């Protein structure tokens, strides 16, 4: 921890301004200049220093981080979240979501003809592929990730092949190689989501399927819970596109949208996550290497007391999440994500205006 603290201190010596690109004056989705601040928050998950702003376009409704993290900033804020200090914790979270992974696979199954080659983009350690294999035994799963997670997934037998790197680069090397591409909570992390959609078209065979799950910024929970709504996930989520925007963009890119699902993509954790994040913000943080100094024993005891006192709140929040799950969440527009399943049309097919 002491060695990590020294490294973080050196990286933060000049403050956090160096982690951001210049502020954009235009919406990256439609090009409109009618943008304004929507949310201002901090890193509520790792408690790394910095302030983050989400702007909203008043023409198309797109929400985006502005100013956006640059490559140095992305590397800084991702470090020790999915890997390093956070690898074991997040690995346990993702590894325990088998039921959700199989539900995703069942959503795609009616649109598949049988045996297929599937690329899971942003696969992490390949836990989705491992879970989905029980539902789709005739499918061969490959994974792609920027980290070494995909390579680890290949060694663990969760994927046939694990590719490391960027999706557009892989699509340029392997055009027309897959029958299905999935992006489960990946697109919102991308600096240029429209480029990722074009990469999906390039790597898919004609008639292939693209499956996208992303947070739904039109969820009522986004307004009700404010900065405590988990899917804001700042500073990692750079873009949050309303379903209509993404559906129209897929159509313009040469896809036919076959299904739009909300209740099926919903993860019933909004209230529990908001309660936990709020308690975590109230309690002094644990020993983390990006803090100037480790907290003393008194502050650690105070944190334990705050979290213990919050247990009843967490239990009530979890019960309410379950009560509001499923079709009820859809009817009340409380779903925190949506899923689009689209078919890649052959090259040369007419594309409607974007």
UniProtKB/TrEMBL annotation:
What are the record keywords, sorted?
A: Methyltransferase, Transferase
Q: Which GO terms describe its molecular function?
A: methyltransferase activity
Secretion signal: which residues?
none
Question: Which Pfam family, giving just one, matches this sequence?
Answer: Methyltransf_23
Lineage: superkingdom: Bacteria
- Membrane spanning segments where? none
Q: Name one GO biological process term.
A: methylation
InterPro entries recorded: SAM-dependent_MTases_sf (IPR029063)
Query: What protein am I looking at?
Result: Class I SAM-dependent methyltransferase
């Amino acid at each position: 921890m002491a060695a990590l603290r020294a490294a973080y201190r050196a990286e933060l010596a000049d403050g956090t301004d160096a982690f951001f690109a210049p502020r954009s004056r235009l919406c990256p989705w439609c090009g409109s200049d009618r943008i304004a601040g929507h949310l201002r928050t901090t890193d509520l998950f790792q408690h790394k220093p910095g302030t983050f702003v989400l702007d909203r376009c008043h023409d198309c409704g797109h929400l985006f981080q502005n100013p956006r993290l640059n490559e140095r900033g992305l590397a800084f804020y991702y470090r020790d979240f999915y890997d390093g200090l956070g690898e074991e914790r997040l690995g346990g979270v993702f590894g325990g979501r088998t039921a959700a992974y199989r539900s995703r696979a069942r959503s795609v199954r009616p649109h598949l003809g049988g045996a297929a080659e599937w690329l899971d983009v942003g696969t992490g350690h390949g836990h989705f592929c491992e879970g989905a294999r029980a539902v789709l035994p005739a499918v061969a799963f490959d994974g792609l990730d920027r980290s070494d997670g995909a390579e680890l997934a290949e060694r663990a037998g969760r994927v046939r092949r694990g590719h490391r790197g960027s999706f557009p680069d892989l699509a340029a090397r392997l055009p027309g190689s897959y029958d299905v591409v999935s992006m489960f909570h990946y697109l919102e992390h991308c600096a240029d989501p429209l480029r990722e959609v074009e990469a999906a078209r390039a790597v898919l065979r004609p008639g292939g399927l693209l499956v996208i799950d992303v947070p739904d910024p039109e969820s009522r929970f986004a307004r009700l819970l404010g900065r405590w709504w988990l899917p804001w996930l700042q500073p990692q989520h750079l873009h949050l596109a309303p379903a209509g925007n993404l559906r129209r963009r897929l159509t313009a890119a040469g896809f036919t949208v076959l299904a739009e699902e909300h209740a099926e993509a919903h993860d019933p954790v909004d209230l529990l996550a908001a309660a936990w994040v709020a308690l975590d913000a109230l309690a002094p943080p644990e020993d983390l290497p990006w803090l100037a100094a480790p907290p003393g024993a008194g502050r650690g005891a105070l944190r334990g007391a705050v979290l213990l006192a919050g247990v009843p709140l967490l239990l009530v929040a979890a019960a309410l999440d379950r009560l509001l799950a499923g079709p009820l969440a859809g009817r009340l527009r409380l779903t925190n994500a949506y899923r689009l399943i689209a078919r890649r049309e052959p090259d040369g097919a007419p594309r409607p205006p974007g």
